[in-house]
Write a structure and sequence with these properties.
single chain; 141 residues; mainly alpha
């Protein structure tokens, strides 16, 4: 399970992203008209980079709890993504768009935070097991 979460999932995501970017760039360079698909892929990649920038900036802020961090990052990313989608993709704005966007955003954010929380728990369990083993192997005084 650890190998799946720490190696397989990230490598699959990285490969998928690189393939999409390469496809979009090649289509744009060769003049193949895919009716905005390539532009969309590149904008989505820029959104991901923007989200990573927010994450890096928040790494320098001291939060009392994991929950505070998650809520803060989620709110910032929600506003940033909503603004980008409104400016670039949505020519009009409706309550239906907002509801759908919000639901999709919540699913993605929940999945991402759950994934990293699971990884952190696995790492903590490994460290605790190593500490316990070192304590049980240590000579008694």
């Amino acid at each position: 399970m650890k190998n799946f979460l720490t190696v397989r999932v990230p490598s699959t995501c990285i490969c998928f992203t690189l393939l999409l970017l390469a496809n979009a760039a090649l289509n744009l360079l060769s003049g193949i008209d895919t009716e905005g698909y390539d532009f969309t892929v590149l904008v989505l990649f820029l959104i991901i980079l923007l989200c990573q920038g927010v994450d890096i900036a928040l790494d320098h802020v001291e939060f009392r709890t994991w929950r505070q961090y998650c809520i803060t990052e989620s709110l910032i990313l929600y506003v940033v993504n909503l603004a980008v989608f409104r400016i670039i993709f949505w020519h009009s704005f409706s309550a239906r768009q907002l509801i759908i966007f919000t639901l999709i955003f919540l699913v993605i954010v929940t999945a991402v935070f759950s994934y990293f929380r699971k990884l952190q728990r696995m790492q903590a369990d490994e460290i605790n097991a190593l500490i316990a083993k070192m304590q049980s192997d240590a000579p008694r005084q």
